[in-house]
Amino acid sequence: MKTKSWFQRLLSTYLPIFYLVIFFLIFVFFMTVSQMSRQQTAKANDSYAKYVMQALESALQNIDRVFYRELDTDPDIQAFLFRKEDTGESEYLLNSRLANKFKTMGVSYPLIHSIYLYRDSDRRVLTSNAIMSSDNFGDHEFAEELAGGEAPYTWTGVRDYRLFSFDPLTSVVSLVRKVPLQYESRGFLVINVSVSGIRGMVDEMATQNVGSTGVYDALGKAIVGSVNDNLQGMSLVKSSYMMWEVRTGLIGGSAYGVILNFFYGWIALGFAVILLGTVGIVFVTRRYTSPLDAIVRRIKSYSKSRSKELAVMASGQPQFFETAFDHLLEMANLYTDVHHENLVYRRKTFFIELVGGERRIDASAWEEETGRFGMTAGYRELGIGILDIDKYPGFCGAYSYQDQNLIKFVISSVVKETAAEMRVAVWSEWLENERLTVLFRTEEPEPGLRSEVAVLCDRIRLWIQDNLEYTVTIGIGSVVEELGDVPRSFDEAEEALTYKSSAGMNRIIAYSDTERGFQLDSFVYLQLIRSIADSFKLRDADWKIKFAELVDHMRSRLFLRQDMVNLLQYMIFHISKEVWDLPVPYKEAWDRVTPELSGVLKDFDTL
Question: Which residues are in the CdaR GGDEF-like domain (predicted)?
């Protein structure tokens, strides 16, 4: 790579500074003009906020006045509230007529989302679509709160409304009026105005001179816009009728509303000054760096033929050796770090290949790799043990990521120290987050690795139990004599851990001690499950005794977790099949609890 000349270095240093100063002055000028523009925009925002508030007040007051008049004069509302039956008219016709009136009013005033009338005497609610009990009404909580207290004087803040409990929620603001107005209240009328309608109304009034418009209720909750809007030059208008606020202003950080009026003469003059300054810097830099570049060229030419004369380079360019030495140190440190990381990666990769059987590893490959990792290569017998942290989700929830790593380091250290006391060589790696895989090996034929591993693992388990807040379950595979059989021992240790669900936690499970209880007595278990399902269907209390018998059977043998899951899923299936013939309430009750039963089968640790 070609080295930059001193002329290029100084030019690349001074020109950016020169341009930075120029652009800073331009920025100051822009900000001054921007501030003046914002002041003008703030005035426009204030006028616009008043206009929006007046429009909202006018629309909502019209709705208020119309319904106030209806409450005073409409005989149907009085008949509904007082339940006047002496008129001889069907209550169905009265309700239908009121519902049609509500629909007509909704058409006349597009902002209206819904209307309903509440009768205190029997807690009935009449809407434009249905009449129902308050308990079945989607706005039950709001209606009952009004029935037990005073109606709000003005429009409510933003709230959620729905006609039925299964309908989606809609954001509305509401006006509540007790009826009749001048006598003892027999109920109330609620007019809901759609927040989306108010938002659409404000959007129609929006102009390009306003960066953002927000409407907020008395509690500061956003009706239009966002509570977190970062507005600059904000104008605020508050309504004495609705107790709402309208806020308008520029969106923070934007250049909206900034008017920049430049005269072409000033622009040309500015560019001319920048050009002259650039030419001046280039000329002066060239004049004073030419001698330096000539010296550097001579030093480079000389160093090619006389590499021992590095001192001359130092005198001509004092920072040369300092820079070169720092660079060499940096490269050496980088190489050391990369080598260490690569060694750790290769060590774990080789261990995975060994226990996983991904490639054939003979004695020569074993000696070569263990020598590279600083380990002894001798072995007579080998075996795999896997330490599984019990209740691992709770372990993750109780400790931070750093504390988890610290505890795992402690467990690894305990394994190494305990093995060293018993003169057993170990190689351990965390191949999974909750499992530490350990390769045990010994060169001594007596007393044998099989008995040594069992004692060693139990000592490790007891130490963790006594000194840490969590326990481990250890699965042990068979002892082998050949490297090619290590994957089999690893698979056996993994399979031994699958019996943890029936055997329990905080114990040693050797593969040689396990048996497949499910396969041995599968017919007996399936017959027992069918009997449980039949008793459950007939509501015979014997199903509990039979279920306890099934659990006792599973406890009496070591079961694979998947066998236990399959057996219990088969039981749930048969009970569901039998319950399906029962009346609907029984089926509904069973359908409600079935997902919980299935969820337990996914998450349980032990029987």
Answer: 433-498
Per the CB < 8 A criterion, the answer to whether 436 and 387 are in contact is yes
Q: Are 174 and 191 in contact (CB under 8 A)?
A: yes
The C-alpha atoms of residue 177 and residue 189 are separated, in whole angstroms, by 5
Residue 457 to residue 439: CA distance in whole angstroms: 12
pLDDT greater at residue 159 or residue 341: 159
Q: Sign (positive/negative) of CA torsion 538, 543, 546, 551? A: positive
For 448-486, the pLDDT digits (tens) are 677 788 889 999 999 999 998 889 999 999 888 888 889
Q: Which of 547, 541, 533 is nearest to 576 (CA)?
A: 533
Instruction: Name the β-bridge partners of 133.
Output: 124
What sign does the CA torsion over 379, 384, 390, 392 have?
Answer: positive
H or E stretch at 112? strand 112-119
DSSP state of 483: G
Which stretch of DSSP H or E encloses residue 557?
A: none
Q: What is the pLDDT of residues 491-513, one digit of tens each?
A: 989 988 887 877 778 888 888 77
Q: If we measure between CA atoms, which residue out of 12, 3, 10, 21 comes closest to residue 287?
A: 10
Neighbours of 437 (CB within 10 A): 21
Decide if 175 contacts 235 (C-beta within 8 A).
no
Would you give the distance in Å from CA 106 to the centre of its chain? 42
- Tokens matching residue 77: 């509302």
3-state secondary structure of 48: helix
Question: Phi, psi at residue 474, to the nearest 5°?
Answer: -115, 125
How far apart CA 224 and CA 213 sit, in angstroms, is: 7
Q: Which two structure tokens, joined as six digits, stand for 405?
A: 């790593």
What's the CA gap between 474 and 457, in Å, rounded? 7
The torsion of the CA quartet 596, 599, 600, 605, rounded to 10 degrees, works out to -160
Which one-letter DSSP state was computed for residue 497?
Answer: H
| The pLDDT of residue 298 | 61
Give the C-alpha distances (Å, rounded to integers) separating 59 from 63, 241, 555: 7, 12, 74
DSSP per-residue string spanning 1-17: -PPPPHHHHHHHHHHHH
pLDDT digits (tens, 9 = 90+) for 505-553: 888 888 877 755 445 466 677 788 888 888 888 888 888 888 888 888 7
Q: Return the beta strands (E) in 394-499 as ranges.
A: 425-432, 435-442, 472-476
Segment (H or E) for 515? none
